[in-house]
Design a protein that fits this description.
The complex is a heterodimer of chains A (321) and B (250). Chain A is an alpha/beta fold. Chain A is built from ten helices and 13 strands. Chain A has a six-stranded mixed beta sheet, sandwiched between helices. A four-stranded antiparallel beta sheet of chain A has the order 11-12-10-13, with helices on one face. The N and C termini of chain A lie far apart (57 Å). The chains are: A alpha/beta (321), B mainly alpha (250). At the A-B interface, α1, β5 and α2 of A face α1 and α4 of B.
Chain lengths: 321, 250
């Protein structure tokens, strides 16, 4: 056994032995005259963080800098306190699942994952490879060449190869591409388990529906800048220049709508066949006053639901700014 | 301490180099001199000295001058270039392996692959032509010279594969333009030609069974320039890989 060989991970999604962190301080990266990332700072700990932004916003550049595959033009990127670029040892901690589908097509799925385990210097690479192939549910296809895999299968085998050493920091670039709904659910469950075990997980994705349930903490990139970061519901609350919208059902929608219009915090009510849509500039005041207004009017409230507190709404508001 | 060569990288590179149609290309490179030899053996007039002239010319012009640089260009540029082109190099870069071990492992596989093409291309014609004129010493000389050429060519082309997206085209331009044309026509350029290093080393290792009337680069120059080329190319390759950045895809 060489010095590079390490103890085998205990079990799938086993708790990370130590707490990990990723930190960006005033990071910029440019290619010639093109600024891809502009003065981004953030600090990430255990849990899932969604990295959002339209195409060209700089998401992949950020992920590659976190993975040490790109050096920042200015500022600093650290993983567990050290800069990852130019330090191969850091890949005992980091795993990157790149967006590109390309995986050595002449290898079978099993060979690819086993290769990753051997390159990580694991003591029992065969067991580690089998464990991760089971984790992504590819046992039945592991003997086939990767060139025969579908897009979703390639994504899963890449994830199996990346997780083979139980990394503490997992960076995923559009991981749900090509996966069917069942595979996505399975992958989401697996990522939740890893996050609960203490892993730092950063997911770049344009499929906001999945991230809506998966990652409450988000980094929103727009044109290379960090437009917002934190819990997306909290971000939404702070966006006071955008009206908040609720749907409300009651025993008398028309009367409730008329009563709500007398409240200063409400500036619009729309009547639909089965509910009313209420627009307010002051979310807190409206929700506080709503019960009193309905009680005074003798109306029974049946349901109140915010309609623009989804990640998608927050994202579109930020991008459209 | 880790072994200098990473076995999994050796295995992966070997699979990569001989995947798809490259295996047929390698066989063609190996068999071409055999076909020429068979045609000569059964068609040409068997005058005195003809076999030696043919064998010597075949090795110098076709094998040392053309096949070895071409095979080295294909294997050397593909060892890194193939992975750079299809993006799979990222799977090696995100592993805890020192960059110099990656470079050394890739280089060794490129050299062994080219030698695997070279050996049958030299031995089979020798076996067909063997006799009083074509001796074992001549074969040993050409193998030694070929091995020297392979080791330098592969270092150059390995680096080119990492440095340029058009590495194969640039390699072919180098082989055809510089090695095949310039170095043969200009004496001053010979001391920069890997092909000429191979010829000089072949003569030196052939136990005087090979002679040439034309100018041959002195062995002192071969060792000096060969070492500069080899160490320079490998160092550049290591530097390039250490500074390698995965291209942005948005």
């Amino acid at each position: 056994m060489t010095a590079a060989q390490r103890a085998e991970p205990l079990a799938p999604a086993s708790p990370a032995a130590a707490s990990h962190s990723v930190e960006l301080r005033n990071v910029s990266r440019w290619y010639g005259n093109v600024v891809a990332v502009n003065d981004v700072s953030c600090s990430l700990g255990a849990g899932i963080t969604g990295l959002l932004g339209p195409n060209g916003a700089g998401k992949t550049t950020i992920l590659h800098m976190m993975a040490g595959l790109l050096r920042p033009s200015a500022g600093s990127v650290t993983v567990d306190g050290d800069a990852p670029a130019g330090r191969p040892d850091v890949y005992r901690t980091i795993a990157l699942i790149p967006e590109r589908e390309s995986v050595q097509p002449f290898l079978t799925g099993y060979e690819f994952v086993l290769m990753s385990a051997k390159l990580q210097g694991l003591r029992d690479p065969v067991s580690a490879a089998k464990r991760c192939i089971t984790l992504v549910d590819l046992e039945s296809a592991q003997g086939r060449k990767i060139s025969t895999y579908s897009k979703g299968m390639r994504q899963r085998i890449k994830i199996a190869g990346a997780l083979v050493h139980d990394p503490g920091v997992i960076l995923l670039d559009e991981p749900f591409n090509g996966m069917d709904p069942r595979q996505r659910i399975q992958m989401i469950d697996m990522l939740r388990g890893l996050a609960a075990a203490g892993c730092v997980i950063v997911i770049s994705s344009h499929i906001l529906e999945e991230l809506n349930d998966l990652a409450s903490n988000v980094l929103v990139m727009v044109a290379g800048r960090l437009a917002a970061s934190g819990d997306f519901r909290e971000i939404r609350r702070l966006m006071t220049d955008r009206p908040h919208t609720f749907t409300t059902k009651s025993s008398n929608d028309r009367a409730l709508g008329a009563s709500l219009l007398t409240d200063a915090s409400v500036f619009g009510v729309e009547l639909t066949p089965d509910h009313i849509v209420v627009r307010t500039a002051d979310r807190g005041a409206m929700t506080r006053n709503l019960a009193g207004i309905s009680r005074a009017a003798g109306i029974r409230l049946l349901e109140i639901r915010p309609t623009d507190e989804s990640l998608e709404s927050v994202f579109s508001y930020l991008v459209d700014r | 301490m880790n072994a200098p060569l990473e076995r999994t990288v050796l295995w992966l590179t070997w699979r990569q180099l001989f995947a798809r149609k490259r295996i047929y290309l390698a066989i063609a490179f190996s068999l071409l001199p055999v076909i020429f030899t068979l045609v000569f053996r059964f068609m040409a007039e068997d005058r005195e000295g003809a076999r030696m002239d043919f064998f010597s010319g075949l090795n110098r012009n076709l094998i040392l001058g053309t096949l070895i640089p071409l095979a080295a260009a294909v294997f050397g540029t593909t060892a890194f270039g193939g992975e750079v082109d299809d993006g799979t190099i990222v799977y090696l870069l995100v592993k805890p392996i020192a960059r110099w071990r990656l470079v050394l492992s890739k280089y060794v596989v490129a050299v062994l692959s080219t030698i695997a093409v070279m050996i049958p291309a030299m031995v089979l014609p020798w076996w067909i032509m063997e006799g009083t004129e074509v001796t074992y010493d001549m074969l040993v000389g050409f193998i030694a010279g070929g091995a020297l050429g392979v080791s330098i060519y592969c270092a150059i082309f390995l680096t080119l594969g990492l440095a340029s997206k058009r590495s194969l085209i640039l390699s072919l331009l180098y082989v055809i333009g510089f090695e095949a044309v310039l170095s043969r026509s200009l004496v001053g350029v010979k001391s920069l030609s890997v092909r000429e290093f191979s010829v000089a080393a072949s003569l030196a290792a052939s136990n005087e069974s090979l002679t040439l009337k034309e100018y041959v680069v002195p062995m002192s120059t071969v060792w000096t320039m060969g070492t500069i080329f080899l160490v320079g190319a490998i160092s550049l390759c290591l530097w390039k890989l250490s500074r390698y950045e995965v291209a942005e895809r948005v």
